[in-house]
Amino acid sequence: MTNDELITKLKTIIEPYIQDEVAFKTLSEDTDFINDLKVNSANLVDIILDIEDEFNIRLENEDMEKMLDVKAAMLIINTKLKA
Amino acid sequence: MIKEDIIKRLPYQAPFLFVDGIAAISENGITGHYTFKEDESFYQGHFKDHPITPGVILTECMAQIGLVCLGIYLLKDELSQARKPQIALTSHQMDFYLPVFPNEKVTVISEKEVFRFNKLKCKVKMLNEKGELVCRGTISGMIKV
User: Fold this and answer.
1) Where is the Carrier domain (chain A) (predicted)?
2) Can you list the residues of chain A whose pLDDT is less than 70?
3) How many domains does chain A have?
């Protein structure tokens, strides 16, 4: 999967949970889930669970703690997919 | 953890405690009950001369039994006198079918759907004394020690 494909999939997962539409429209690898998209902690859990379903991977507490922005999410997903 | 301990650890008190007892509890779900007293404060205003339990209060009762009591049970190994649970309601979707009048006893049945990363999500329903469905839906909250 290319980075563009991965970002497209991530955007579909994230969209229902964001509060900041402008930040979502200009989403890049540096976009931060909490500070930029204004996702709350409960919805961050929803995003994690949806990522697990979409990519058929299992995320742990340490992944959750690291998954603060799009770049980190992509790194974690790619690492899990290769494992 | 015995059922009375769970109720003692609830962070609520009158007039906003809506749990009388717990009939059954496990890692997967809980059944509990509450009787709406005739002198509950909200009956004065909901509605004028025609007391009916507000839907938000039914939802609160379901959240206290179905989510918070169950959450305390799930976190039982981490709790102590000094370590109290921190809770926050994060979302709910609820459908209402029948009214609940003063002095009615309701039973709340909750099934755990997800408890991960401190988020507890449950399918919850409320029955009246005749066993009829009063309301049902999904409630989620964050709970941690």
Assistant:
1) 1-81
2) none
3) 1
What is the band of B46 on the pLDDT scale with cuts at 50, 70, 90? very high
Residue B2 φ then ψ, to 5° = -85, 160
B118 in reach of chain A (CB within 8 A): yes
Q: Predicted confidence band at B98 (pLDDT cuts at 50, 70, 90)?
A: very high
pLDDT at position B2: 85
Q: Indicate the residue of A41, A49, A61 with minimum beta-carbon distance to B142.
A: A41
> How many angstroms separate the CA atoms of B112 and B24, rounded?
14
* pLDDT tens for each residue of B1-36: 788 899 999 999 999 999 999 999 999 999 999 999
Domain that holds residue A38: 3-82
CATH number of B3-144: 3.10.129.10
